[in-house]
UniProtKB/TrEMBL annotation:
Transmembrane segments: 7-27, 39-58, 79-98, 110-130, 150-172, 178-195
Keywords: Membrane, Transmembrane, Transmembrane helix, Transport
Name of this protein: Cation diffusion facilitator family transporter
Pfam family, one: ZT_dimer
Location (main, coarse): membrane
Membrane topology recorded in Swiss-Prot or TrEMBL: Multi-pass membrane protein
SUPFAM superfamilies to which the protein is assigned, alphabetical: Cation efflux protein cytoplasmic domain-like, Cation efflux protein transmembrane domain-like
Alphabetized PANTHER family for the sequence: MITOCHONDRIAL METAL TRANSPORTER 1-RELATED (PTHR43840)
Places the protein is found: Membrane
Record organism: Fontibacter flavus
Domain annotation Cation efflux protein transmembrane: ranges: 9-203
Phosphoprotein listed as a keyword: no
Family to which this protein belongs: Belongs to the cation diffusion facilitator (CDF) transporter (TC 2.A.4) family.
Domain Cation efflux protein cytoplasmic: 225-286
Amino acid sequence: MESNKSVWVKISFVVSFLLLIVKFYSFYITKSTAILTDALESIVNVVAASFATYSIYLSSRPKDDNHPYGHGKIEFFSAGVEGTLIMLAGLFIIYQAVYNFFFPNELEHLLEGIVLVAFSGLVNGVLGVVLKKKGKELNSLTLEANGKHLLADTMSSFLLILGVIVILLTGLDFLDSVIAILFSFYIIYSGYGLVRRSVGGLMDEADPVAVDATVKAINDNRKQNWIDIHNLRVQQYGGDRHIDLHLTLPYYLDLGQVHDEVEELESVLEADWPGVMEVFVHADPCIPDMCCHYCQITECPVRKHQMDTKIEWTASNMSKNQKHYHELI
């Protein structure tokens, strides 16, 4: 899996580097600040792809004594670096646009520049769609972030083309700086989104998608002996997922039976995830006076109360650090 990630991120680097040359040539022949915004974002693409290559390599390394949870978090850092670079590029574009507003360049060969930018945007769009798809398939935030960035770059390129066409038709050269500033705000916003997601991952912010997927896998394979699951925590680092939870089982099971139930739950979760999965299950004994009310075991030898409530397992109640009988109080 990691070799596939590496291949795609290298392809991204080569394509980004070639398009960087095309876009700067377009700026060279047109002297358009708006087109410069596209060229500067391509520098970000190249730097981001370079860092992503190292990120993919490092995240693929197995866990060791110094990194007991593996190296997957580097992908969050990679996305954060890319977002920061995008924001810096946006700020520089604003500076350049304001400068050119007061000291304008004479725009030239706009039609040729439009063709070159359109070609670059089309290539970026195709590559962006592929990288985003591969990022989801390979559980790589780095590839997915790179794909989203290229798609945003494509959208900005084609909107930029519309703006340059307006300049070409109207002859109002000052619009070049106005368009550049408008696009710089979009670029900064795009970079902020990546940085926000990166910080959330580095701070172990709850990932609703990962939690919901885990809850669904458990519900789809729910067993009678699994009376209660609570204190569920899900962390995802790149292609690695770590799950901690408490499992309430009948108190009369012997140690071997408890072990089998825990292993079955672990197998259910591991089968639902294509990447590396690490599950830690803490087994709790049931409390008959409390748990009998929602215990689904049909032939329980020690039942004290009839089952009168079926508690649906959701991300909300499974994440709480308490048995579900608290919901009945």
